[in-house]
Amino acid sequence: MRSAVALWRLLRAVAHVLHGMVVMRRFPKLDAAGRHGCIRWWSVGLLKSVGMAIEVSGTARPGATLMVANHVSWIDIAAIHAAAPHARFVSKADVLAWPLLGWLIRGAGTLFIERESKRDALRVVHAMAAALQAGDTVAVFPEGTTGAGPELLPFHANLLQAAVATGTPIQPVVLRYADRGAAFSDAVVFLGETTLLQSIWRVVSGRDLCAHVQILPPVGTRHADRRALAAHLRELMAESLAP
Question: What three-state secondary structure class fits 206?
């Protein structure tokens, strides 16, 4: 029975992704509000199609903002876009190879980074600073990779430099995925040698999954030291994840 439910959810998700690709072709003709509306619709729809509810607390700051979020799974971008569709993500370039999803993520205005290249990291910091100065909201995962959920990995401070250099506020976003039996669901964790397809199957096989998106108040960056700022942000987010 669970396999049948999971297969049905998977088929719904694929259909939703394909629909999103059709909608994405209209993006050049839409204004910012229209694009953001489509991104929110698609993100909420993807969560629903895989059997996941969403609960959002707090309000995303409009305009120039650097969002920092903990990183749990491939579905994090959809969870955040459901609450803040105006956010442009910085993502590892590997995502471009993901079937269908990579194309959609690119179309949403994502900035891609080769994480192993220090030169590319500098390029992305400059691109982020330009986006922030233009009034955009940019979102990053300062852990640099996915974690198990309740325990945060160390934060990399280099991408925070774009906010420090431009005096842009940083808004922490805390993600937590729960299910019927646990406050931190194992079904959503995307670690180690787990492939994308294996992770998707675990998600669609989950029971009563819910994405909790907690948007914390913005933190000022003027005259801040980026490493101290990274430690402060990590502490704030760890407190919100604590039982």
Answer: coil
